Automatic annotation (TrEMBL):
L-tryptophan binds at residue 137. NCBIfam families: trpS (TIGR00233). It is found in: Cytoplasm. Homodimer. It holds the Pfam family tRNA-synt_1b. ATP binds at residues 9-11, 17-18, 149-151, 188, 197-201. Belongs to the class-I aminoacyl-tRNA synthetase family. This is Tryptophan--tRNA ligase. Catalyzes the attachment of tryptophan to tRNA(Trp). Its EC number is 6.1.1.2. GO terms for molecular function: ligase activity.
Length: 332
């Protein structure tokens, strides 16, 4: 059976981008078609300035929202990355496989590193090495497919390169995985700045729809979305990125096609109204279920305990094999 692995970083409240780009497919198809593992990748939340209490709270909230969105612990394995040592154990071997040059070329390192330096902050070494830990997350499980949004393509390509290089040098150890992306909304853009990605770690809340936003908050954010000075509703990501983003969101929510939907609307106002309602309806069941689950932390903790147990069992033999293959003396 095909193996799928993917993860969410607890660096902020989950957004519509996280849902449409990744989580929704995990729920609707991946967990039913494969042996799927989904992970709250908490170690990845430590690469930038962080507040320990907030990371802890967000880790639980992220897991709770993954369940509220419809991940079923009977159908998939849900766990927290730091509960399974295999990730950091394998990461070091992959650091010995990667070069500093290829990590310095990672777009997210360049962007986030530059931003931190410009703000006079130091850059944590883990911001540079983080894609190697991500490769370890994926490779430890013999993953075939990694369902992610567009922004993770470069990281999955690095994972493929490291797996191939390790296999060539030390003998076949890892499956070489491939990224899969949704057909629409692989990159949901910020409503206030439609040239940049809607990201949970951004400060401005106005352009970001959070999965737990109240319906009226969603309506307000969509109503205020930046469009352009034109009138005609066209699907043109270059010339009219704000309008194209709304069409992508509406298409993803309603199962339509963004180009065809463009022909249906005569005004931005009507497009915004329908988009807002489609998002509100999409999020409604999730908000209700989240409230129920948040009141029963024992259930969530038990799901995470069992998930980590299963994840450890799957990862251990492959990571042990990698330790042996690279030349380390097995412990007796
Ligand atoms: P993270 O936590 O930033 O995002 C989680 C998932 O949501 C997708 N996503 C989006 N998709 C469309 N539009 C958006 N605006 C948008 N924002 C986020 C991301 O593409 C991702 O699929 N490095 C990863 C976490 C990670 C991981 C892994 C993922 C660590 N190890 C192993 C897969 C496999 C990250 O920062 O995702």
């Amino acid at each position: 059976m095909k193996r799928i692995f993917s993860g969410l970083k607890p660096t902020g409240h989950l957004t519509l981008g996280n849902y449409l780009g990744a989580l929704r497919r995990w729920v609707e198809t991946d967990q039913h078609q494969a042996d799927a593992l989904f992970c709250v990748v908490d170690l990845h939340a430590l690469t930038m300035e962080h507040d320990p209490g907030r990371v802890r709270r967000l880790s639980r909230q992220t897991a709770t929202l993954m369940l509220a969105a419809g991940l079923d612990p009977e159908q998939c394995t849900l766990f927290v990355q730091s509960h399974v040592d295999a990730h950091t154990r394998l990461s070091y071997l992959l650091e010995c496989t990667a070069t500093d040059g290829e990590l310095r070329r990672m777009i997210q390192y360049k962007e986030k590193g530059e931003r931190a330096r410009a703000a006079g902050e130091s850059v944590r070494l883990s911001l540079l090495t983080y894609p190697v830990l991500m490769a370890a997350d994926i490779l430890a499980y013999g993953t075939d497919e990694v369902p992610v949004g567009d922004d993770q393509t470069q990281h999955v390509q690095l994972t493929r390169d490291l797996a191939t290089r390790f296999n060539q040098r030390y003998g076949h150890t890892f499956t070489v995985p491939r990224a899969t992306h949704p057909v629409v909304a692989a990159r949901v853009m910020d409503l206030q700045d439609p040239t940049s990605k809607m990201g949970k770690s951004h400060d401005s809340g106005a352009g970001i729809v959070y999965l737990l936003d109240e319906p009226d908050v969603v309506r307000k954010k969509v109503a205020r979305a930046v469009t352009d000075s034109g009138r005609e509703v066209r699907y043109d990501r270059e010339a009219s990125p704000g309008v194209a983003n709304l069409l992508d969101i509406l298409a993803a929510c309603s199962g339509g096609n963004p180009e065809e939907l463009a022909g249906v609307y005569e005004s931005y106002g009507a497009l915004k109204r329908d988009t807002a309602e489609a998002v509100v309806e999409l999020l409604r069941p999730m908000r209700g279920r989240h409230a129920e689950l948040a009141a029963d932390t024992g259930f969530v903790d038990e799901v995470l305990r069992k998930g980590a147990e299963r994840a450890r069992e799957i990862a251990r033999p492959r990571v042990d094999a990698a330790y042996a293959a690279i030349g380390l003396l097995p412990a007796s």
